[in-house]
Design brief:
This protein is of the alpha+beta class. The chain has helices spanning about 10-25, 30-35, 50-55, 80-100, 120-125, 130-140, 205-215, 260-265, 415-425, 450-460, 480-490, 510-520, 545-550, 575-589; strands spanning about 60-70, 105-115, 150-155, 160-165, 185-190, 270-275, 280-285, 295-300, 305-310, 325-330, 355-360, 370, 375-380, 385-390, 395-400, 560, 565. Strands 6, 8, 9, 10, 11 and 12 form a six-stranded mixed β-sheet that branches. It has a five-stranded mixed β-sheet with strand order 2-1-3-5-4. A hairpin with a 3-residue loop joins strand 14 and strand 15 (about 395-400). The relative contact order is 0.09.
Length: about 600
C-alpha cells in the first residue's frame, strides 16, 4: 500500500464533520438568540455562530487521548506513548505558533484497542473510508476525561478524517457535553501520519494538524475547478498555502489562512481592517507580527466578502511555495452550501460548510496565483488590489473600489441611495451594523429610538446630549439611544406614546414621521387648518395638518394617487426616512 499522502480521498473529512453536526441538529432545539441573529456573537459579523460553534474548543488547553487501533493484516509498529510524545513536540508547538499561544492541544496516552475493520482501500483507490470498529472500541475504552480522541490506525496509510463533535441537548453548539466520547469529537488517521513508513519517508504530521483543524470546525479552502482523479468529486486540496487544503500534503504543516484564525478567536477584532469604499492603503502583518492580520472587502450581502492576509516565509510558513498577500472569497450565504434538509433554509453556511475560495481559482492544484508579490495587481469583483511594498513582517497593499464615494454596500441601486449617502455624509446616520457600520439596512423599519437619533443629529443637537434624566420608564440609563430620546423630549419634539413611556423599539408610522419632522424642522404653531387632502387621513386626526404641510413642501407625495392617500399607519422604512430627512434638510422645512 502506498505510504504517500493521497489528497484525492481526504474530501471525506469535511463530509464526516458535516454529517455529525447535522445529525445532532436535526433533533435538537437551538438557542433563540443565536438562531435569530447567527452573526450576533461576532462583533464584526464575519463568522456565523462564532461563540457557540467556532470557539468551543479553540481557547486554552484542548486535551486529546491518543489511541492505537490494531486491525487485521497490518503489523505496523506504533505505540500510543511515543505518538503522544511526538505530537506534543511537533503539533502542539505548531498550534501555539498559529494561535499566538491562545490554543494548546495536549496529547495524552489513551491506550490500544483492536478492531475487525479492514485496511482502508481508499488510500490506494481515492475512495472515502471509515473505521467504525476502531471508533466504537475507543469510545468504549475511553475514560471520558478528555475533549477529543485521536485514533491512529496501525496500518500503512497516512490519510484521515475528523469531526468537531455533536452538540449538546440543553443549548446546542456550546459544548455542554465537552468530553469524549459524549461529544463524539474524534480524529482518525493512518499510521503513516505519525510514523515513517520507510526509508526517506517522513511522518505526515500535517495530516494530524489538518484533522485537529476540522475538530475546531474549520472548512477547507479550495477553488473548485479540479476534481479527484477517477471521480466526479471536487478536489478540496488545491490550495498549497493552507493546512486545511493542499498545504497539508506532507511532513511539517504550513500555516492556516486568516479566516480560520479569526473564526477560532486567534485574531482580535481590532486586528481586522475593513475597506468600505474608494482607495485605501493598508499594512498587513504576517502571523506573529503586530498589526492588521486580516483585511475585509465587504460585498452586498452579509456573510459574503473578500479577505486578504499576509504570509511571510518564516517559522512554520518557511515551507510556503510563495510569500505575499493572499486573496480569498468567503461565501456563507444560505445558498452557498448544501445543508441538511432539517436545517432552517435561512441559516447561513457555517463551520465546515463555509465556502472559502482562493481568487482567482485555478485548475492547477499547486498554483499560487492568488498570492500577490510586490508590484503585482489583481482585479476581482469591484476591487483592484496592488501590493506596494514589503518588509520582514508585512506587506503594504492599496485597494481601489470602483464604488468610489459609496458609504454603504447594501443600498446600491436603491431609489433612495442618494439621500442615504447624503445623510451619512452629514453624520445623521452611522449605519445599522456596529462596529463595522458598512450597511444601512434600507428595508428595515425605523424604530422610535432610531428616529430620535436621526432627528437630534439632523438638527445639530448631538453635542448637547444630556446626562441621564429618567424622563421615560422604558428609556433606562446606559442605552445608546437614551440621551437622544431625552434631548428630543427637552426640545419638545416628543412627548412619548403614553405618559411616562416612549416605546423606543416600536416602529415609527408615517403619521408620527410627519409630526416628528414638523416639530424638529418647523414651527408647529404655524400649522394651518387641515383641508382633507388625503382620502385616508380624517380631517380631525391629530396628525392631519402635519401630513398636509410635508406634502405641500414635497417631502412626501403620499402613498398612492388614486385616490390621493397617505397611509398614516404604515411603518416607515429606513431608506424612506433617509429621503424624508434629506428633503427636509434641503429646505423643505
Amino acid at each position: 500500500m502506498s505510504s504517500s499522502h493521497i489528497p484525492g480521498r481526504r474530501w471525506f473529512r469535511r463530509l464526516t464533520g458535516a454529517v455529525a453536526l447535522a445529525a445532532a441538529l436535526t433533533t435538537l432545539p437551538g438557542p433563540a438568540g443565536a438562531l435569530a441573529d447567527p452573526y450576533g456573537e461576532d462583533p464584526l459579523r464575519l463568522i456565523p455562530f462564532a461563540g457557540t460553534v467556532q470557539r468551543v474548543y479553540s481557547q486554552g488547553s484542548d486535551d486529546w487521548e491518543v489511541w492505537i487501533c490494531r486491525i487485521p493484516g497490518s503489523t505496523l509498529s506504533v505505540n500510543a506513548s511515543q505518538v503522544a510524545a511526538n505530537l506534543n513536540s511537533i503539533v502542539t508547538p505548531y498550534y501555539q505558533w498559529l494561535s499566538r499561544n491562545r490554543y494548546l492541544p495536549v496529547f495524552r496516552v489513551g491506550g490500544e484497542v483492536t478492531s475487525t475493520d479492514p485496511i482502508p482501500t481508499g488510500a490506494a483507490s481515492g475512495e472515502s473510508f471509515q473505521m467504525p470498529g476502531c471508533e466504537e472500541a475507543v469510545s468504549i475504552a475511553s475514560p471520558g476525561t478528555n475533549q477529543g480522541a485521536l485514533i491512529v490506525v496501525a496500518a500503512e496509510f497516512s490519510d484521515g478524517y475528523a469531526t468537531a463533535g455533536a452538540v449538546c441537548p440543553e443549548v446546542p453548539f456550546t459544548g455542554c457535553l465537552p468530553t469524549y466520547p459524549a461529544n463524539f469529537r474524534r480524529a482518525v488517521v493512518g499510521g503513516g501520519a505519525v510514523t515513517s513508513l520507510g526509508p526517506g519517508l517522513e511522518p505526515q504530521w500535517s495530516v494530524v494538524a489538518h484533522e485537529i483543524g476540522h475538530a475546531l470546525n474549520w472548512p477547507h479552502s479550495y477553488g473548485g475547478l479540479t476534481t479527484i482523479p477517477n471521480t466526479t468529486e471536487t478536489n478540496t486540496y488545491d490550495n498549497p498555502m493552507d493546512v486545511m487544503s493542499g498545504g497539508a500534503r506532507s511532513g511539517i504543516p504550513v500555516g492556516a489562512i486568516a479566516y480560520h484564525r479569526y473564526a477560532a478567536g486567534w485574531i482580535d477584532p481590532a486586528e481586522v481592517a475593513t475597506h468600505r469604499s474608494g482607495i485605501g492603503t493598508y499594512r498587513l502583518a504576517s502571523n506573529g507580527a503586530p498589526g492588521t492580520q486580516m483585511l475585509v472587502l465587504p460585498l452586498t450581502e452579509e456573510g459574503h466578502y473578500y479577505l486578504l492576509d499576509a504570509r511571510r516565509r518564516s517559522s512554520y510558513d518557511s515551507r510556503l511555495p510563495q510569500a505575499g498577500v493572499e486573496v480569498y472569497e468567503v461565501d456563507q450565504r444560505a445558498g452557498a452550501c448544501q445543508k441538511p434538509a432539517a436545517w432552517p433554509s435561512t441559516w447561513p453556511c457555517f463551520a465546515t460548510l463555509v465556502r472559502v475560495t482562493q481568487r482567482p481559482a485555478v485548475a492547477d492544484p499547486t498554483s499560487t496565483a492568488h498570492v500577490l508579490g510586490i508590484d503585482e495587481e489583481l482585479i476581482f469583483g469591484p476591487f483592484t488590489v496592488r501590493v506596494q511594498t514589503a518588509d520582514e513582517e508585512s506587506f503594504t497593499v492599496q485597494v481601489s473600489d470602483e464604488r468610489v464615494g459609496v458609504r454603504f454596500i447594501d443600498d446600491d441601486g436603491n431609489p433612495h441611495e442618494p439621500d442615504i449617502e447624503a445623510i451619512a455624509a452629514l453624520g445623521i446616520t452611522k449605519g445599522c451594523n456596529p462596529p463595522l457600520n458598512d450597511r444601512f439596512c434600507p428595508a428595515q423599519t425605523v424604530t422610535r429610538a432610531e428616529m430620535a437619533a436621526f432627528l437630534i443629529r439632523a438638527v445639530g443637537e448631538e453635542a448637547n446630549l444630556p446626562a441621564f434624566q429618567g424622563y421615560f420608564s422604558d428609556v433606562p440609563s446606559g442605552q445608546w439611544f437614551t440621551p437622544y430620546v431625552e434631548r428630543l423630549s427637552q426640545l419638545g419634539i416628543t412627548q412619548g406614546t403614553v405618559p411616562g413611556r416612549f416605546s423606543p423599539g416600536v416602529p415609527v408610522t408615517r403619521a408620527e414621521m410627519a409630526v416628528f419632522l414638523i416639530r424638529a424642522f418647523d414651527d408647529p404653531g404655524s400649522l394651518g387648518t387641515p383641508a382633507g387632502l388625503f382620502a385616508d387621513v380624517p380631517i380631525d386626526a391629530w396628525y392631519a395638518a402635519h401630513t398636509e404641510v410635508i406634502y405641500a413642501l414635497g417631502i412626501t407625495l403620499g402613498c398612492s394617487t388614486d385616490p390621493l392617500s397617505y397611509c398614516p399607519l404604515n411603518p416607515v422604512r429606513r431608506d424612506e426616512m433617509a429621503s424624508f430627512i434629506a428633503r427636509a434638510q434641503r429646505g423643505g422645512l
